[in-house]
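Quick one: structure for this chain?
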Amino acid sequence: MKAALTALRGTVLLVLLLSAGCAGQQSALEPRGPEAAHLAQLFWVFTATCGAIWIMVIIGLCVAISRRSRDADRSSHGPLALDQNGERKTAFIIGALVTATTAILIVFTILSYFATRTLAASGQTLNIEVTAHQWWWEVTYSDEEPSRVFQTANEIHLPVGRPVKFTLKAADVIHSFWIPNLGGKQDLIPGQVNTIAFTPDHTGTYRGQCAEFCGLQHAHMALYVVVQNERDFESWRAAQLRPAPSLSMPGPVTGQQVFFSRGCALCHTIRGTSAGGRLGPDLTHLATRKTIAAGTLLNSQHGLTVWLADPQRVKPGNKMPDISLKPPELTSLESYLGSLQ
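Got it. Here's what it folds into:
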């Protein structure tokens, strides 16, 4: 009795652990948009159908083994004797199963086609261009008015209820854009432009991930999507359109001098200053983002210090060089970057 109770507890614990991956801010099984809901429904249809088929196959296998054993015992002609009637039944059953398998595959194909059709943009959309780099995301908010175009990195803000079309490009190798709660996957391929669209219908913060192995730091290539009400989104966009704030405190002023003197401006852009590098992320409003290094560290004083002190230790192989900052320089630079609201 005690052993049975222990086994039951272990089973329940295992089920709970497995179920924990079916919800949260990075789960295709907790859809937060109609496109993701269609894909989740497709998943459950596939899982239920394949599960039922697997159960029937196991039952059929057990029955066949049992009957074969009994027939062999009863046969007076030996195990190799042919049963014409049994052979015809077997051929009929195999033919029926092949037909059923073909029909199921056709139905699966049709369901997949209609589910993935929803990932195409339609109507009036918010247009965002995403370019994947090893190992971070460049995000450009497009607009017919050039003065309303701006860039950010590794974090996307969206208005709830509005269709969004993503134009996807790759700067180096193949990547894959995937925000499980909001939509399906789409590859970013060098020299090719792909698109994907979805409409978030719940506010919240959702985690995305590169879903195609793209090198050493593939696992550390995440992005966050913040879905807001329309008013908050427009307020955020208006703030992003502004240049970097002016400086008044000694710490950030000294940090800006370090930023330019140590070559940071060669790779990064900070609008409102002469920094116009395009190799790394736009840092104009870095302090407003939740993470740095594409989701690797929290965007905090400690996170910035750790990253600036030795980026290769935090994310080996990334394109940011170790510039060996002295402690006063590190403190001042962290203060400057932390002021970029």
